[in-house]
Amino acid sequence: MKTLNRIIKPMLLALTMLSCIISCVPLKSIFLGHPDKKDASRFHSITIDPQKTNFRFEKGISPPLIKINDWTSDLPEFNTLQELCEHHKVRELLIIKNDTILFNYKKDLKQKLHSSYSMSKCVVSCLIGMAIDDGYLESEDQFVKVYLPELIQNKNSAQLQIKHLLNHTSGIKNSLAMDGRMYYGNNIQKEIEKVRFECAPGKQQEYLNINTQLLGLILSKAVGKSVSEYAKERLWHPIGISDEVNWSTDKKGIEKAFCCISASALDYAKFGRLYLHGGLWNDKRILSEYWYDQSIKRDTSDGSSFNFNYSWHIGLKKYGDFMAIGLYKQHLYIYPEKGIVIVLNNDRENKVEAERVNWWNVFRQISDQL
Q1: H/E stretch holding 149
Q2: Pure H helices in the chain
Q3: Separation CA 312–CA 310 (nearest Å)
Q4: Which of 115, 218, 260, 289 is the most exposed place for a label (fewest CB within 10 A)?
């Protein structure tokens, strides 16, 4: 009997733990593991097609001779851009200056669309600004409870404002299980009732996917249409996308706002071009100057930090550069003073290599030589 108990008890414990895991996260997350480029085709999505006429960048006559040290070897070894890309898990690197393509590395010529991962957070930030410009939202100071009354009702949820979600100062408690359910699950709306707070909004900054997901839900309610439809009308078509843009959704058609846009490097660059020119597109104002200024300014008030604002990563004062960044070091780098936009799309890389390379410094080395 004792021998039987020694066998049965561990089995029961294992079954209990497995049951707990299954109830907390979707089975799909266990089998698929890390997010990867195949996810875009695994999930439901909404497709935005380009119009017949689209914006085109000029093509440079010959790529510039640029040498880069990525410091992954701790030695002053300078490599060409081609060598840099081949050394890392780069799918595509696109360098544009003053609307001219100077360099475009593509690992796979057949692969046009790349996952944004968290770069989409800056797209959502832009759309929130556009919704304010259009009068759908009063301001970023509006309380979230106006649009999401289903949030648990307490003093913290009552204080939560749109700007707290933009700056990731919501005070919401981190939950990896929630991230898994939002990414792999079938019903994002159900996650609202599971939101809990660690502290009052505006006290401290913690980068959470749920913050941007809540912004997506607010945006859809405010404009009365899907986030994708609004993005098509106000962003993708006005900037003249060249390829289709896909936005992954749950089974109910709600966009995974915190991630999951699939677009070409050229179209990410067009989004960057909009911010390069402060919200203007060929002399037509698409995004208000107010929202552009609010987005890329430094603001350490209300729990925010020096280098992050409205979901944008703010660079060095010397350069005045800023970036959208996503998982596996996806980057949209913008340097207004020199008219430079750089798009970097990566696959998952060796952890040590990924930690050692500082792509911000790489982009600045490139910019200094242009």
Answers
A1: none
A2: 2-24, 27-32, 39-42, 81-87, 120-133, 155-159, 162-166, 176-184, 209-223, 227-231, 265-276, 289-296, 351-356, 359-368
A3: 6
A4: 289
Q: What is the pLDDT of residues 335-357, one digit of tens each?
A: 999 999 999 999 988 777 777 88
Helix, strand counts (H, E) of the chain: 14, 16
What DSSP line would sit under 230-252, residue for residue? Answer: HHIIIIITTTT-SS-EEEEE-TT
Rounded CA separation 212/219 (Å): 10
- Is 46 strand, coil or helix? strand
Q: Scanning the structure block, which residue is given the tokens 């475009």? A: 104
Q: Which amino acid is at 156?
A: N
CA–CA separation, 22 and 24 (whole Å):
5
Is this structure's pTM higher than 0.70? yes
Cβ proximity of 293 and 309 under 8 Å? no
Query: Contact, 167 vs 310, CB < 8 A?
Result: yes
Tens digits of residue pLDDT in 9-62: 444 444 443 444 445 555 554 445 566 667 777 788 999 999 988 999 999 887
**Strand, coil or helix: 105:** strand
* Of 307, 353, 365, the residue nearest 329 (C-alpha): 353
Q: Is 269 exposed, middle or buried (0-12, 13-18, 19+ CB in 10 A)?
A: buried
Angular region, 258: left φ>0, alpha ψ -120 to 50, beta rest: alpha
- Phi, psi dihedral angles at 93 (to 5 degrees): -130, 120
